[in-house]
Amino acid sequence: MSEVNRKLVNAERRSARTRSTLHGTAKRPRLSVNVSNKHISAQIINDDDHTTLVSATTVGSKAKGTMTELAATVGTDVAKKAKVKKIKAVMFDRGNKQYHGRVKALADAARAEGLEF
Length: 117
Hints:
Elements: H1 3-19, E1 30-35, E2 40-46, E3 51-57, H2 67-84, E4 91-93, H3 102-112
Parallel strand pairs: 1-4
Antiparallel strand pairs: 1-2, 2-3
Helix pairs in contact: 2-3
C-alpha cells in the first residue's frame, strides 16, 4: 500500500468512526465542518430530512487573514445564520480532522455567538 493510499484509507476510517455516532435531527442538527487546503466550510444538516439548514464558507469571500482567522469568521457566520433560523443546539461533526487549530477556531467562534454543542 502506498503512502498516499494509506493516508486516504486512514482518513476514511476516522471519518466513519466520527460519523457513526452522529445523526442530526430537527431538534439537534449536525454541524459538519470541512477544511481543505484553500477553503473552510460549515453546514448545519438535518439528517432525518436530508436537508441543509444553514451553510457558510470562505469560497467567494473577499476576507483576508490566516486560515485560522477565516475559520473563526465562518464559525461566527454559521452561528449567526443559525440564530436567525432559531437553531440553538447542534452536534459537532469534525469529519476526519482533529479538534485542533482551524476546526477548534471555528467551534470556539460558533460557541461565542451562542451555538451550543
